[in-house]
Amino acid sequence: MGTLSPIAPGLWTDEVEPQLIGGAHKDSGRIVFPMPDGDAANAYDAVLLAREGTLWSWTVQGFEPKAPYTGPKPFAPYGVGYVELPGQVIVETRLTVTSSLKIGMPMRLVIEPFGDRATFAFAPAGDPA
Amino acid sequence: MTDVCIIGAGIHPFGRTEGRSGRDQGVFAVRQALADAGIEWPDIQFAYGGSSSSGAADIIVNDLGLTGIPIVNVSNGCATGGSSLASAYSAIASGEFDIGLAVGFDKHDRGAFNASPADYGLPEWYGETGMMLTTQFFALKLQRYMALNGISRRTLGLVAEKAFENGARCEHAWRRSPVDLDTILNAPMVNDPLTKYMFCSPAEGGVALILASEKKARELGIMPVRLKAAVMRTRPPGSFEVFAPSLDVQRGPSPTVVASKAAFEKAGIGPEDVDVAQLQDTESGAEIMHMSENGFCADGDQEQWFAERRTHITGALPVNTDGGCLACGEPIGASGLRQVYENVVQLRGRGGARQVPGSPKVAYTHVYGAPGVSACTVLTV
């Protein structure tokens, strides 16, 4: 996906095996995603997040969202979930599939096209890359 | 501190009213509440109010009269009404005023709400990629809750079935026809596991409540409903809220748990004393989860409660006796006040076809809003 520009800068590392970039709070160590910006960023250190985790919850978006949604036309239902990256943080993410989802299943980070840009998503870890 | 009483309640029917603005629906409700209390607009010393889509609440003075009173416009998402009431409660409990108004009204466009990321301090990509939807949050919270606590899809259907049954008996409800369980379960999926009939819709309506000190209520010769507690709380660490790009691995309780506990403490009673409850049911699962978050049952017990119809009007703890958000729809500014209105009706024994039998004495409300606000009340007679 190196040819497509990311939906926003600073969300993941630009490498063959990309990682999401979170923020670890300097005092509490609490991790958030994405890395905060503006003055809030001063309280956080950037931290690389695990590429694999487990599905914490999921749903399928069955209707086309209103603005500011900019997804592909025509609309097709897509998966949305939270993936727990062990010991780090639980991130909300698009899912690459809409069926056979089960809480606790292993998931893996992928970068996928989103219109003419790229965004992050998680895929079942058993799927071929 | 004085006891705070509700001495007047008014409502504009929820749903869709062509040709009548949100503000007009609010003014309609205020006039009805004034008549109910037997007082006039110039008797009102202050007001708190809110609307999300129909302008600032203080514009009602254009219609009701320029009496110069302070009016604070409240904006707390779906908990706007509850927050208005909590503020009005404090104004009277403090002794500064002895009669005032909490009002809410709204008129929303059709279809799901769409939020702006910037309004919630979130990056634009979060909305662009289709993750910033309230319906998704409800489904995500529920999906996990069901898996961990053994709640079935059928029970989600039973919640909606009850809502439409109750709505059919309630003159201020929007959905006035029962819907059978199969239709609910087999309807198009909106956000798995929730079908179309399991979600409430944005709507229109207005509610007004007149609050007074106990002394004032006595002077007016009104048999009041006592507002024993009206509290609002924001989210604690580790709670799971709408519009959250990430969650802490260390999980914590919801703002509802915190607000509910505070309300019961303040009222000096417990969930076991409650005779009728109105719980935020923006979708079927919310009612189920809020039953336990408000302390009425343990996680997972809801499956049994619904099998035994314990939250139906004739059950041990009737919940959402006017059909709740599912049957009334959700005009944001008015919704939390509708719950309190319904409890006032029930405590006065004026519920007609939906009246809870056995003269209920203690009533409870709970409303939840983005991004993690809950407001609860306890009413007694």
Could you walk me through the main structural features you see in this protein, from its secondary elements to its overall organization?
- The complex is a heterodimer of chains A (129) and B (381).
- With 129 residues, chain A is mainly beta.
- Chain A contains no helices and nine strands.
- Chain A has strands at residues 5-6, 21-25, 31-32, 44-48, 52-61, 78-85, 89-95, 106-114, 117-124.
- Chain A has a five-stranded mixed barrel with strand order 5-6-7-9-8. Chain A has a three-stranded antiparallel sheet with strand order 3-2-4, with no helix packed on it.
- In chain A, a hairpin with a 5-residue loop joins strand 2 (21-25) and strand 3 (31-32).
- The radius of gyration of chain A is 15 Å and the shape is globular.
- In chain B, the strands form two sheets. Chain B has a nine-stranded mixed sheet with strand order 3-2-4-7-1-8-12-11-10, sandwiched between helices. A two-stranded antiparallel sheet of chain B has the order 5-6.
- Chain B has 381 residues and is of the alpha/beta class.
- Chain B has helices at residues 22-37, 61-64, 80-93, 124-128, 134-149, 153-167, 181-186, 214-219, 255-267, 284-293, 302-307, 324-328, 332-347; strands spanning 4-15, 47-50, 71-73, 99-107, 189-191, 194-195, 204-213, 225-234, 246-247, 276-279, 362-369, 373-380.
- In chain B, helix 3 packs across helix 13 and helix 6 packs across helix 10.
- In chain B, 59% of the residues are buried.
- The mean pLDDT of chain B is 95.
- Chain B is globular, with a radius of gyration of 19 Å.
- Chains A and B meet through strand 3, strand 5, strand 6 and strand 7 of A and helix 4, helix 5, strand 5 and strand 9 of B.
Low-confidence stretches of chain A: none
Average pLDDT for all residues of chain A: 94
What shape does the CA trace of chain B take?
globular
Biggest interface pair, counts: A-B, 42 and 34 residues
